[in-house]
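Re: the 102-residue chain
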Amino acid sequence: MKRLYPEELPELVQRRQRKLRRRLLLAIVAVAAYLVAVVHNAVTLEERLRAIQVLERACDSLEGVRARLRQQLAREQAPERIIPLALELGLVLPEHPPQAVP
């Protein structure tokens, strides 16, 4: 074990202080980097949540349009509408409904 002499003591104290300052600076930098990462993740998450909300609203709107189009298609395909139009054109109803051939 090395014996410390009084003239070496201030140099040792300074070296320890420098080492402590470096560690403290490194800890501060690490905490700052962590905070920057947390804030960046929060901002990114918020942006993505807003994008999801926009897409959900668009999806809801499209589902409404789809439902209206299905109702319109059902009205257009209704026999109550087609039969009178067919009779006006001179078409006749078959005696037996057609059968699908497999």
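Residues 9-84 form one domain.
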